[in-house]
Amino acid sequence: MPWVVEQSRNKSLCKECRRDIPKGEWRFGKNHGEPRWFHLRCGSRGAPQMFPPFAAQVQAILGAKPDESRPLSEVERAMVAKLDGKGLPVLADWLISKGDPWGELITLRLSGEDDLAVEHFDTHLESLVGDMPGEDLSWLQGVVSRADLDGSGPGLRKKLEAVLTHRTASRLDTLDIYSTALEPALVTLLSEKAPASLTSLTLRGRAAGLEHLSLPRLEALRLELNPEAMAGLLKATLPKLRALTLQTTKKPLPVAFVEGLITSRLFARLEHLEFEEAGPVGSSLDDAGLRVLLGADTSRLKSTYVELAGRNVTPEQKKAAQKKFAKTNAVFLKNPPEEPEFDEL
Description:
By secondary structure, the protein is α/β, with parallel strands linked by helices. Helix content is 35%, strand content 18%.
């Protein structure tokens, strides 16, 4: 069966937004092989190579042109990011006064009108999501709060720029990026366009250019990288960083990096330091790294996670490690970081 525009013969699932397409509603897609169906408003994003020949037909069915994302000025972005959770009603009223469907979405979420919110979201999908990868976003009270992106090269840069510049993500606070090649250009893009509200960042995979990372308000950073990429971290501009998690997947962190870390300004500001276990290599901090850490002043750390079992150290070093890290390890294990509960859109 070729690609078609038709009225749905039965309830189906949109491959782009993952929402139901009710029986009788117009849809775009095909049944041949693996069924692939999209809401008409999702077709251009979900099947871009197949959609253009049907664009005029879809437009005729939809009527008015779908809402386009309205860019925010720098002043507006600053205002949106500044308003805390209690300020969301004010933000919603301001957006509604501008004729922005985002304001109505926030209002519906805050008032608990979840069914109406989902319907409103689907109606204004193009405006509220635009070029952002919708399946990678988490919403909280009608605002994009978290994005989880993967890929490499131009494709990943396009995804990241779309998220960092879209108005509904102007209060983004958590970002997780996975790539087999985190290029310096991507780090620069992140540094230049991340919203002021971004406080938590995870970078996973091969990376270069961490010395160019500049996020003045970032509070928590998780790096899952090859050890060679870590050195750039010591030159990054992260004045508000308080929690650092390090993980390597091939071999433990070089001793030279650990030595540089504990003498850096970054380390002096930390309240939480964590070395994750990484599969077959064991802890990201090996015995030599542990010995270096034993000589550092860690008294201000409120919590840590340093694996102490199975270490090839002297009895005196083992006793010192238990004394130094057992208590703060226990604090971390008792109070692990909590994941926020996101709206489902």
